[in-house]
Design a protein that fits this description.
The longest helix has 14 residues. This protein has two domains: 61 residues, Winged helix-like DNA-binding domain superfamily/Winged helix DNA-binding domain (Arc Repressor Mutant, subunit A), CATH 1.10.10; 79 residues, Alpha-Beta Plaits (2-Layer Sandwich). The protein is α+β, with helices and mostly antiparallel strands. A hairpin with a 6-residue loop joins strand 2 and strand 3. It is 41% helix and 15% strand.
């Protein structure tokens, strides 16, 4: 056969690959997996996890910056982020705030124990009405609730504890003041700030 002509008697080969077994359908499996990821938004891959990590470090990061770091186009990154949002994996974007600089340097956890007739929603509502409360966790076992909060000072913390004690729904409290700590979010923000 003359050079430059296509031999139609042989199955076509993909450019840059070795000769493949005609029965090999691995390329189809790969294409099907990519299709399934977009049809079934709960599925995600290592690149999605890398994008999530980059957003976790800095939620204001641009699609262009993310694309540069994960070797995709900005449009492809946007599609992936949209898919992660639609699947509920990325549920929102937030900022990390230094509460001490905002005038609430005292961080504490208050354990709450309730009487047997208390309604869980009522106790959560009591805690949620306090602006210092950042989270209320309902736990299995002892205690019944764990309240995370930031207060301006120890006097305000005592007022909050007494507020819980005055309700007829809470039978006992135990307060733990945080002396220091580590959180993944804070560490990731520090790492990202140092890498700029």
């Amino acid at each position: 056969m003359r050079e430059g002509l296509i031999d139609t008697r042989q199955p076509p080969q993909r450019v840059g690959t070795e000769a493949q077994d005609p029965g090999d359908v691995s390329w189809f499996k790969s294409a099907r997996d990519q299709y399934d990821r977009f049809i079934h938004p709960g599925c995600f891959d290592a690149t999605d996890l890398e994008i999530i990590e980059l957003l976790r470090r800095n939620s204001r990061r641009t699609f262009r910056d993310i694309a540069h770091r994960v070797c995709l186009s900005p449009a492809a990154v946007k599609r992936r982020v949209d898919r992660l949002e639609a699947a509920g994996i990325v549920d929102g974007y937030t900022v990390v705030i230094d509460e001490a600089k905002l005038g609430r340097p005292v961080e504490a956890f208050i354990e709450l124990r309730i009487s047997g007739s208390s309604d869980v929603d009522d106790v959560v509502a009591i805690a949620a009405d306090l602006p210092e409360v950042s989270a209320v966790y309902i736990t299995a076992g002892d205690p019944d609730f764990l309240v995370s909060l930031r207060a301006a000072n120890n006097e305000r913390l005592l007022e909050i504890v007494n507020h819980f004690r005055r309700t007829k729904r809470i039978v006992s409290t135990k307060t733990q003041i945080v002396l220091g700590g580590w959180t993944r979010t804070k560490r990731l923000v520090e790492i990202d700030a140092n890498s700029r």
